[in-house]
Amino acid sequence: MLKEFKEFIMKGNILDLAVAVIIGAAFGKIVSSFVADILMPPLGMLLGKTDMTNLFIDLSGKGYPTIAAAKAAGAATLNYGLFLNAVIDFVIVAFAIFLVIKAANRMNRQKPVAAAAPTTKECVFCHTMIPILARRCPNCTSTF
To answer: Chain centroid to CA 55: how far?
Structure first.
């Protein structure tokens, strides 16, 4: 059983998938950091010096100053700032995947195969197909 498991794990597709998952997770962390630490702070400054991750609606109505305070008190909140960050993360990752797939498709695209030179031609008298090098039709015996 251990031998079968080892053979299963060592198949090329499984290893490729494992590498892709690990790289994808690392890429996701990089994109999340980019959005949270680089993209959103200047965007928040442009929109009125707001911390975009701290945008929320307090459903309890008690008026907590931050999401952390609301969560510590156990209040229900709609965290639309965090949701906005997640949407931007998704859009960036989806666009990156689109670019990778577009590049892969471009590399895999088959070049059009040139049409092979014709080996037959049509007899102008009897309209049967004859070899291209023929000087006389074998069917009607006309000459070219």
So the answer is: 30
Range of the domain at 139: 117-144
E strands in 12-141? 57-58, 77-78, 120-122, 129-131
Average pLDDT per run of 10 along the chain, which is 144 residues long? 78 76 89 87 81 85 88 90 89 88 81 80 90 88 80
Q: Tell me, yes or no, if the pTM score tops 0.70.
A: no
Q: Are residues 83 and 144 in the same domain?
A: no
Query: Could you give the number of structural domains in the chain?
Result: 2
Quote the CA–CA distance of 103 and 119 in Å, as a whole number. 38
CATH number for position 50: 1.10.1200.120
Q: How far apart are CA 130 and CA 115, in angstroms?
A: 19
